[in-house]
Amino acid sequence: MIYYSPSVAARPVVVSAVDLFCGVGGLSCGLQDAGIHIAAGIDLDGTCNYPYRTNIRAPFQRRDVRDLAADELAAMWPAGAVRVLAGCAPCQPFSSYRRGVDTSHEAQWPLVDEARRLVEGTMPDVVTMENVPRIGNTPIFTDFVARLRELEYWVDFESCYCPAYGVPQHRRRMVLVASLLGDIAVPKGATAPADYATVRQAISPLPPVGHGEAHPGDSLHKSRTLTKINLERIKQSTPGGTWEEWPEELRAPCHRKASGATFRNVYARMVWDEPSPTITTLACNFGAGRFGHPEQDRAITLREAAILQSFPSDYEFVASGEPVQLAPLGRLIGNAVPPRLAAAVGKTIVEHVRTVKGTVRKIPRSTTVPAATEP
Prior knowledge:
This protein is of the alpha/beta class. About 25% of the residues lie in helices and about 15% in strands. The chain contains ten helices and nine strands. The strands form two sheets. A seven-stranded mixed β-sheet has the order 3-2-1-4-5-7-6, sandwiched between helices. A two-stranded antiparallel sheet has the order 8-9. The longest helix is centred in the C-terminal third of the chain and has 19 residues, at about 340-355.
């Protein structure tokens, strides 16, 4: 593999990314913060259109990646840019929450192969992908890595612990980086355990709300209504505790079974002074995990879930006046790539390109760079 010489670059280069499976923009947000231009985001879910275009200020295409031709993708990058193909294929088939269920028949499995197809058809300079750690043991991932190496990419992938990257959440994600320009490595988290961001640091500045209420100044700061028995349960819960501290009459039938004794991280409160548990698509549901607020008698709000994912506190998810629906927005937030993790990856890519090319020109977020007209 031959490195490019910095002296070859007559002028600063633009690093530009297309984000496959972009969702509401967590990956794009982090890459953008690192100085990477976002050429486009692509996702089949039309509800991602508003948050993506509003926050990322980049084109959003609602379409199925399986129908995206390589020449169409190639035309999205600016002419002359260092091209980055980024994405996070839906991770549900690979999630540890599936508990050994055979998911190989599900439609989302081949989406990693779609990313491979588009890499083969466009040969971007840099590829980065993010998913759950369990994907690293699947044939579809190992085949993807093998194919990248056949195409002469330098490849590295690691399971990354998100608190080490400034994310206030106990979450692990598999991150892959690959480059045609030379050797590249997944960034190491720079935050020491003593300095991990905590739930208190992340969400304690938010004003209090009751269960079933939304704050008048932020429609996303909205909590799910609790049933009478769940309200009593959360009142009996302490931060870091379990349902075992409840009176017998509050325990669910499943808790009384031997098999239920192992599920101690449901119907529980978060702890103030440590990172939160993994924010899932059901993070606004008290019964779905340790998603109770540390002090207030309610589950966390959508805004709190987004902040614990490391989204900016003013990130817009719905247009003003539009209804805020807990389940769909919770799914989008839980599925997102934590922007701070993405920013660390983005900084690695920018530094990698700077080492190879000499100088990188950062593009203001509102700037549109002309797209290439040919693959």
